[in-house]
Specification:
- The chain is built from 11 helices and 11 strands.
- The protein has one domain: TIM Barrel.
- The protein has 336 residues and is of the alpha/beta class.
- The longest helix is centred in the C-terminal third of the chain and has 21 residues.
- The mean pLDDT is 96.
Length: 336
């Protein structure tokens, strides 16, 4: 199983000193490349008071320019908010700049504020998403096409130049529900699972995905994203990472994400309760065993690690650099 970083660029509570945050993320990506990581991914949100950077492809370009082998990607672009031809051209441009190192992860989106910022009706997001995926793939084909959908009308278009990667840049779909998993199987190259759910739920979701992919005559490619932290001891991991991840989970619980519906009151939302079969956290030996368990159970080809949390801004850059080093030394060589 390969490893990638998922990096949120934000600086709570007011989004100050973001240039420093970008410099730190680039330095983390450079170290990850040296440590044997395969990739680095960025997400998208809008009008966030914490300063969450809204344009992941631009951040990917900065990271690509500062590395040589590390793949760069999005997890995820909120596809219903984008014109598919403009996005297709931006991806081609990045594919050329990076010399074929870009992966495009797309998702439906779940925050009303993201849709309000662009005047997009959130109730249309599934129709918009499916049309835009189809158009992206046609844009990257190098062939002339027309498209007559409910939301898009395109006539006699050939997108030039063509991407470097053949037949197209990899297109991944972020999914947290069976219907989304089946969609990923039918119209994308891979599924990316949500980082904050349990192993049991992840396995069930990937099973839906695998069955649908096999029915469609496609080879399944599951990608997992995990909240994880490797430290010198379990105690150190809990002290450094615990407060950061719990601040994110409190936000998810308050916003009704399905993986937290079993928790009825905020007092029940504790690290002790949510850590089991959800967080990969501890010393290198404990974490290696957990990564192997997750790889065996899910069949994942890659695991994206969410070390930094946008809702808290932490752990610190120095702490992240230390854990990347530790993962590269004590985890990556034993998972290849």
């Amino acid at each position: 199983m390969k490893f990638g970083l998922y990096s949120s660029i934000a600086n709570p509570p007011r989004g100050e000193d973001l240039p420093r945050c970008v410099d730190e993320v680039i330095e983390e990506a450079q170290l990850a490349e040296q440590a044997g990581f395969d990739s680095c991914f960025f997400g998208e949100h809008h009008q966030d008071k914490d300063g969450f950077l809204p344009s992941p492809l631009i951040v990917c370009t900065a990271v690509a320019a500062s590395t040589t082998k590390l793949r760069v990607g999005t997890s995820v672009i909120l596809l219903p908010l984008h014109h598919p031809v403009r996005l297709a051209e931006d991806v081609v441009t990045l594919d050329i700049i990076s010399k074929g190192r870009v992966t495009v992860g797309v998702g439906l989106g779940y925050q009303q504020a993201d849709f309000d910022a662009f005047g997009v009706n959130m109730s249309d997001r599934v129709e918009l998403f499916e049309e835009k995926v189809e158009i992206l793939q046609k844009c990257w084909s190098g062939e002339e096409f027309s498209y007559n959908g409910k939301h898009h009308k395109i006539e006699n278009l050939t997108v030039r130049p063509a991407p470097i990667q053949k037949p197209t840049p990899p297109l991944w779909i972020g999914a947290s529900a069976p219907v989304s998993a089946r969609r990923a199987a039918n119209i994308a190259d891979a599924i990316v699972t949500t980082p904050s759910t349990t192993l049991d739920n992840t396995v069930k979701l990937i099973d839906h995905y695998k069955r649908a992919a096999e029915a469609a005559g496609k080879k399944p490619k599951p990608i997992i994203m995990r909240d994880a932290w490797v430290a010198n001891s379990r105690k150190e991991a809990e002290e450094i990472y615990g407060p950061e991840v719990m601040q994110a989970y409190k936000y998810y619980w308050q916003n009704g994400l399905p993986e937290f519906l079993s928790i009825k009151t905020e007092s029940e939302l504790t690290l002790e309760r949510v850590a089991k079969d959800r967080l990969i956290m501890g010393d290198p030996e404990e974490c290696l065993s957990e990564f192997q368990r997750w790889a065996d159970a899910t069949g994942a080809e890659s695991c994206l690690l969410r070390l930094r949390h946008a809702h808290s801004g932490g752990p610190s850059h120095a702490q992240i650099m230390k854990t990347i080093d530790l993962i590269g030394d004590r985890i990556v060589p034993y998972m290849e």
